[in-house]
Structures are given as C-alpha cells and as structure tokens.
UniProtKB/TrEMBL annotation:
Swiss-Prot/TrEMBL keywords: Coiled coil, Cytoplasm, Exocytosis, Transport
Region (Disordered): 1-23
Main subcellular location: cytoplasm
Record function comment: Component of the exocyst complex involved in the docking of exocytic vesicles with fusion sites on the plasma membrane during regulated or polarized secretion. Involved in polarized cell growth and organ morphogenesis. During cytokinesis, involved in cell plate initiation, cell plate maturation and formation of new primary cell wall.
Protein name: Exocyst complex component
GO biological process, one term: intracellular protein transport
Natural source organism: Apostasia shenzhenica
Domain of life: Eukaryota
Matching Gene3D superfamilies: Dsl1p vesicle tethering complex, Tip20p subunit, domain D, Exocyst complex subunit Sec15 C-terminal domain, N-terminal subdomain
Family (UniProt): Belongs to the SEC15 family.
Keyword Amino-acid biosynthesis: no
Record's subcellular location: Cytoplasm, Cytosol
Length: 792
C-alpha cells in the first residue's frame, strides 16, 4: 500500500540552478493577493519569461511541500479514507431516504405548486392593475387639469389657464405613461398658449379702440377741472381786487376769509386699464414681455399720430377743443400706464412720445396762428392751450415749447387786437355827436362816469347831469378796458410770471398808435366845426386824466400792488402824447373859430366907408361876432377849463382886433370918413362891453392874468381914438404915443391915415362951410400924415 517517496534534488525543488524565487512574489502568493500589478510590471519590463520561470519554481516548491506533508501524515490519511468510505455508505442510505422523502414531498407539493402558480399569476395581475391604476390616476389628473385649463380659457381666466399649463408642464407631463396622450398634450400646450395670446391681444386691441374714444372725454374732464380751478382763482382775485378798490376808495373795511363751501373736490379720472394689465401679465408669463411692450408702444404711437392730424372738414377754431382734449386724454392715460403697469412703459418712451406730440402741436399752432386774422379767435385757442398746459403740468410733462409758441405770437395777437380797437375807436368817433353827454339816471352815471373815475366830485350830482365830455369818452374807456382785459387774458397763465410792463407797453401802443392817431386824423381832417373841435379838446383832456385809471386797471388785473403804480415813473407815455394832441385839437378849434370870425368879418365889406353920417345901429358883422362869441364862450364855460377858456377868448378877440385893423389896411378900402370911423367906434364899444362882461362873469378875472379880454382890443381902440382925435399929430409925441397909442405901428398908421378923408370929396366940397374945430383936426391930421411920411 505504501510506497517509498522519491527523493528530489535541490534542482527539482527550484532552489538551485538558473534562478531563484522573488521573495515579494512568494509573499503575494502566500497572502493570496492579486498578482496583476506584478504581472503587468514584468510585461512592461519585457521579462515575462523570468516571471514564468519563477512561477514554475513556486509550483515545484509547493508540490514538494505537499509530498513532505503527505509523508508525515500518511497514516492519518488512510484513517481518513476509511472513515470516508463509512461516510459514503451512510450517504447512500441517506440518499435512499431522501429519495423516498422527495417522492413523498413531490406527491404532496404537486397540488401546492399549482396553487402557487395561481398565486403568482394573481400577484402579477395585481401588479398590472396597480400599474394601470397609477397610470390612470396620472392620466385622470392630467385630464382634469386639461379640462380646468379649457374651462379657464372658455371663461376668459387666462392667468389661471396659464398657471394650470405650467403645473401640467412641470409636474405631470414628464410622468404621463401614455406616450400618445403625452404627445397630444405636448402638441396642444403651445396651441393653447397661442390661443390665449390671440385672445388677450384681441381684448387689448379692443381696449385700444375704446381708450382712444374715451381719451377725448378724459381730456375734457381733466381740462374742465383745470378751468374750474382757474375760475376759482379768478373769482378769488376778483374779490381781492374789489376789496382793494373799496380799501382804496375808503368805502368799507375788508375782511378776508376762506370760504370752504366754495372748494369742490376734483372728480377722479376713472378709466379701465385691466386689459392692459392682463395682457402685460400674460405676455410676461409667456416670456414674451418685450414683444408686447413693443406692440403697445407701436400701436399707441400710431394712435397719437392719428390724433395729431387736424381735420380739414372743420375749421380749427371749432375743432381745437376736441383736438387738445384728445391729446390731454392720451397723455393722462400714458402717465397712468407708466405709473401702474409695472414696467410696460419706460420714462424715456413716454418722453419720446411727448416730444413727438410737442413737435406736432407746435407746428399746428404756428400754422393756425399764421392764418388767423381775428384776435378773439387767437385768444380762444390760446386759453385752451394754457388749460392744456395747466392740465398736463400736474403729470410732469415738459411744456416750455408750447408756452414759447404762445409768447412768439404775442405781438401778432396784439396787432390784431389793436386793429380791432382801431375800428371800434374810429366808429365811435365817427358816430359821436360831439355834444355834451346828458345823463338822466343814476345807473347811467355809475356806468359812464363812476366806472371810469371821470367824476369831478365824489358827490352824486342832481339829474339830469350834463357831463363835460361827449358820449365817445366812456365808449373809448370801455374799449381801453376791454383791451386791457384781453391783453391780460392772453399774457396770463403763460410763460411770464410778471407781465405788467408788457401790458402797459401795449396799452401805450393802443393810446398812441390807435386812439391818438385816430384823433389826430379827425382833427386834421378838416371836418370838425368849432364846437366839435372844442368838444374834442375837452374829450382829450378827460382821456388824458383817465390814463391814471388805465394804469390802475392794468395793475389791478396783473395783480401788482397799488403802491408800485403810484411811483413817479409808472405812468404812461401816452399821457404826454394826448396832451400834445389836446393842444392840436385846441389849435384846430382856434383855426375853426378864426375861420368863422373871418366869415363874419367879411360882412365889413358892407360898411359904407365914405358915409356922411355915422350908421344908426351896430354893424351887422359886429352883431354876428357878438352872438358867435357869446355862444362860444358859454359852451366853453361848460366844457373847457378856465385856462383853456381864457386862451380861447384871448385868441378870438386878438383875431377880431387884427381883423378890424386889417380892414382899414385892406385894398378894398380906398378911403374912409370920420363917420365910418364913428360907426367902427360904436361897434368896438359893443365888443369891449361884451369882452369885459364875459371876463368878469365867467370868473376869468380870478385867474389874475396880466391881460384881460378888453386888452385884446387895444390896437383897434387906439387906432379909432387916433382917427377921432382932435389933435392926431400928437401921435408923433413920444410921451403921448407911449401913453395913448403904444399898440399902434408907424407904418400901419401911415397907411391908414393916407386913406382917411375928413369930408367927402364932392364937386362943391371946397365951397362948403367948415367949423374951426373941424379945420383944426384936419390940419393936425395932415401934419401927422406929413410927419409919418417923413419918418418912413
């Protein structure tokens, strides 16, 4: 049984010969570690044969160890084999028992296996049903959400519809197990979004149409509020002016208070921006906000351009209110959108739109103002433009260009206004009767006198009251007052805060270029009679005094304190101009008076210069002159001041005096007799008595002038006295001449004396008897003639 193991040499054990065993490799194999790194290293080093040789040595070494182990324990091994054989017998017995038991179990478990298969099948069905239920649950939830989305879309709840779509996309779509359903939903979601966008855009487009129609009403309401505020401001200023006027006149004490009942709350401008908000919100949720912003800006800009088109079918004067109301409403809406729409509009976009509107409005205004030829039309449009500015000022829009347009047309407006006033003044002066205005009622007195501060006294007169001016004066004052109101109306609420000096400048132009020039044209036109020229001079004097009232009215309307009006340099240049025109009118009166007197002096041609006897009555010319001067002085006493009446009387009597002397010097008078001189003397006495009475009765003597009316007749009186003197040669005596004949001129006296014939030249004149006195006077006259001839 046992065999003697063969002894192996050292070479067979791998311990000698050509190579040894690497300790590292031996350790790895002994520890059961992975040899892959070691093998990889051998191949990388290019020495796989050495590794194989070492591995063979290790194998041989292990075989030797096994043989030695078997040699040491071979008896134990035999015992183990025997035991193993016994175990095999037991195993066979056990195997038979197991076979029998297996057959029995197989017989018993056959029924159980069928039941198990049924159970497994049921578990599979359950799993499938659970999966189906899960799938159906997801599909039902998605279907419910889709249904809700459809309902929201049908009801117009687009925001909720988009939220539902977002839930489907984020939470359900990727979990839908049915591919077909998922594809359908994926296909319909963009379609639903497109439908929502289309519906929202449709609603927004309807809003665009609606808001454009509403913009006019919005603008009208806003401008109406501005007009009401302006009206309240004007009423307050009117109350202040009334209080100042009462305070100025000392009629009453002024108590200022704020009447709270007069303050009304402004109506709130209501308009619906919901379609804008919703469209903006939905486009934002659809991630196309920028596209909607561009769409909104583009469409509103197109609407603005349509609004800026002026209709040619209707005059701008009739359509300007709706035009500006439309613009105001447009920008009120834009301001609300800017402030509340969450970034739909930017401030730069609104400013760009406003700049476009400004350019269009200023161009339209310049064009329309150029075509206008009526001041009231231009004022109407200006007032509405300022209301537009006042309205949009509350919303922060830049209004300077609009106000500059109004300021640039200021001169044009006043030129038109001055032309209209010129027509009114011309009509007033043309239709004036130039008779003193008779006022019969107290209200007429207040309306025509007190209203313009034309009263001579603060005491109410007895009616009927005869005013020193004609009806044209209060009418002209009304024109001036209306001009001031219109001028202030144009300049107020514009770019100038202090326009008092501007109004005063235009008032000067009215009084100088219109009123004064019209008066001068009438004065120099030669159509005025003496009484008309007198009344014109009186009217101008009243208008000159009224300049103070005009200045006060300008200050009152401009809100300037009265203390500034009372300054020395605050007056009108027109006052001095009217003063000069008054002098021109007075000169025209003098010219008319002299012309009339010349007409009466022509009646001296009827005087018989060679009469033998003095005329029994006053000459016809002197009667006419006396009547005329009496009427002239009576009228002037009611109309003119004492100073003007004095100048008038002096001028009239000087002219009569010069005319009488000129009559003696006239070529028509070849010679005259003492009887003719006696008639002139009687006429002159009548005139002297008239002059003295008028000078005293009219109160002119109170002026203490150096020269009285009678002094104007000194030259003809001294001439007549010389001609009737018994010793006319005394004229050459310096002392006597200075005392009695100082007004006479040598040359005139010489010419007149040459014509003087003491008796008529008849055929028998030299034979007629003469008394001594007459002869002495004749000799003296002849002596005077000779001496004057020698003197000349």
């Amino acid at each position: 049984m046992t065999t003697q193991p063969k002894m192996r040499t050292a070479a067979e054990n791998g311990e000698g010969g050509g190579g040894g065993i690497d300790p590292g490799l031996s350790t790895l194999i002994g520890n059961g570690e992975d040899l892959a790194p070691f093998v990889r290293h051998a191949f990388e080093a290019g020495k796989p044969e050495a590794l194989l040789h070492q591995l063979r040595n290790i194998v041989k070494k292990k075989e030797v160890e096994i043989e030695e182990l078997c040699k040491l324990h071979y008896e134990d091994f035999i015992l183990a084999v025997d035991e193993l054989r016994g175990v095999l017998v037991d195993a066979d017995e056990l195997k038979g028992m197991l076979t029998n038991e297996n057959q029995r179990i197989q017989h018993v478990a056959t029924a159980l296996l069928s039941k198990l298969e049924e159970l497994l099948e049921l578990y599979s069905i359950k799993k499938n049903v659970s999966e189906a239920l899960r799938t159906l649950k997801i599909c039902v939830q998605v279907s419910i959400l889709c249904h809700k989305c459809n309902e929201h879309v049908s009801d117009g709840n687009f925001v909720h519809a988009l939220k539902t779509l977002e839930v489907i996309e984020k939470d359900y779509l990727h979990n839908v197990p049915l591919k077909t359903l998922r594809k359908v939903i994926e296909k319909q979601i963009p379609a639903v979004k497109a439908h929502i966008e289309k519906q929202v855009c449709s609603e927004f487009n309807e809003w665009l149409v609606q808001i454009r129609n509403m913009a006019r009403k919005i603008g009208q309401l806003a401008i109406g509020q501005a007009a009401s505020a302006r009206q309240r401001d004007e009423e307050m200023r009117a109350q202040q002016r009334e209080a100042e006027e009462q305070s100025r006149s000392g009629l009453a004490e002024c108590v200022y208070k704020l009447d709270m009942d007069q303050l009304e709350e402004e109506s709130i401008l209501e308009f619906d921006l919901t379609p804008v908000y919703r469209a903006h919100h939905i486009h934002t949720r659809l991630n196309i906000e920028e596209r909607f912003r561009e769409y909104y800006y583009k469409n509103r800009l197109m609407q603005l351009k349509l609004d800026l088109e002026v209709s040619t079918a209707q005059p701008f004067l009739e359509s300007h209110q709706t035009f500006f109301a439309q613009i105001a409403g447009f920008f009120i809406v834009e301001d609300r959108v800017l402030r509340t729409a969450g970034g739909l509009l930017s401030e730069s976009q609104v400013e760009t739109i406003w700049d476009i509107a400004l350019a269009g409005i200023t161009s339209i205004l310049d064009s329309q103002f150029t075509r206008m030829d009526t001041a009231s039309h231009l004022l109407l449009i200006k007032d509405f433009v300022t209301l537009l500015c006042s309205t949009l000022k509350h919303y922060g829009y830049r209004l300077t260009p609009l106000l500059e347009v109004l300021d640039n047309n200021r001169d044009k407006y006043h030129v038109l206004l001055l032309n209209e006033c010129r027509k009114q003044v011309t009509n007033i002066l043309t239709n004036d009767t130039y008779e003193q205005m008779v006022i019969r009622k107290e209200y007429e007195y207040k309306m025509n006198v007190l209203a313009f501060n034309l009263q001579a006294s603060d005491i109410m007169p007895v009616f009927p009251y005869v005013a020193p001016f004609s009806s044209s004066v209060p009418d002209i004052c009304r024109v001036v007052r209306s001009f001031i109101d219109d001028s202030v109306s144009y300049l107020s609420y514009g770019g100038h805060m202090n326009f008092h000096d501007v109004v005063k400048k235009y008032l000067d132009k009215l009084l100088i270029d219109v009123l004064n020039d019209t008066l001068l044209d009438m004065i120099h036109g030669g159509t005025l009679g003496a009484s008309q020229a007198m009344q014109t001079a009186a009217n101008i004097s009243v208008l000159e005094r009224a300049c103070e009232l005009f200045i006060w009215q300008v200050a009152q309307r401009c809100g300037v304190p009265v203390r500034l009006v009372d300054r020395p340099r605050a007056g009108l240049a027109a006052k001095a101009v009217l003063k000069a025109s008054q002098n021109a009118s007075f000169n025209a009166l003098l010219s008319q008076m002299n012309s009339k007197l010349d007409e009466f002096m022509l009646l001296m041609n009827n005087v018989n210069w060679i009469a033998d006897e003095p005329p029994p009555n006053v000459g016809e010319y002197m009667s006419e002159i006396s009547i005329f001067l009496d009427s002239l002085m009576s009228t002037s006493q009611q109309i003119l001041s004492l100073e003007a009446m004095y100048k008038l009387g002096i001028s009239a009597l000087d002219h009569v005096s010069d005319s009488i002397v000129a009559a003696f010097l006239s070529d028509n008078v070849k010679r005259f007799t003492v009887s003719a001189v006696t008639g002139i003397d009687n006429d002159l006495k009548v005139l002297e008595i008239f002059a003295e009475e008028k000078y005293e009765d009219t109160g002119l003597s109170d002026l203490n002038k150096k020269r009285s009316f009678r002094d104007c007749l000194v030259e003809p009186r001294q001439l007549v006295n010389l001609l009737l003197s018994n010793q006319p040669e005394n004229f050459m005596n310096p002392v006597i001449r200075q005392k009695n004949y100082r007004a006479l001129d040598y040359k005139k006296v010489a010419n007149i004396c040459e014509k003087f014939k003491d008796s008529p030249d008849t055929l028998f004149g030299s034979l007629s008897s003469r008394n001594t006195k007459h002869n002495a006077r004749k000799k003296s006259m002849d002596m005077l003639k000779k001496r004057l001839k020698d003197f000349n």
